[in-house]
Amino acid sequence: MQLNVGRPKDLEKRQRILMSAKHLFLKLGFHGSSMNQIAREAGVTKLTVYNHFQDKATLFSCAIEETCESLLNAQPLHLSANSDFRQALYQACELSLTLVNMPEAIKLEHLLMELASEQNPLALQFYNASHAKLRAMWENFFRQAVALQFIEADAPKTQTELIVSLLHGLRHHEVLLGVRAVPNPTECQHIINHAIEIFMLRYG
Prior knowledge:
With 204 residues, the chain is mostly helical. It has eleven helices and no strands. Helix 1 packs across helix 6, helix 4 (56-72) runs parallel beside helix 7 (122-129) and helix 8 (131-147) crosses helix 9. The protein is elongated. It starts with 5 loop residues before the first helix and ends with a helix.
């Protein structure tokens, strides 16, 4: 019986390439990173990189999608009839605030703006892998909340836009610009409580 001993090594190499690409793209940007640099950092040949990923755009898409998946791979936001909705909403807000303020997430945001400023089609792929998934997480949460009659019915998109605006808003733009520090735990608690208070005035 012949064993395919090459496959685990190939998977291990692919993962090394992805990790190296992620590190360099976040550090140097899309244009500042080359396939040669990625190959050197991964400890493989440039040909090996191309064997796994046909071009830099494909590698970028895969690396960024994996990064976003790891950031958003938190516990699903499930509600039941016995849930304490305010507590569940607080935990959802805390998760969202933590995610967007992670150093890696802020670097990703800078990278997205770099691509968007030059109208690079990769920006849309990037958005779908990050922002769109976070939006979907919130919308699913509010669908459950409405179904269980914890809050008044409205379009989940509208509810999501309200809570995200309350949590991030102008403050997060200032964080991205580097003119304001990431909120500390005490500030996050205040931000979340204030956001929930306003949200529940509208939908409670």
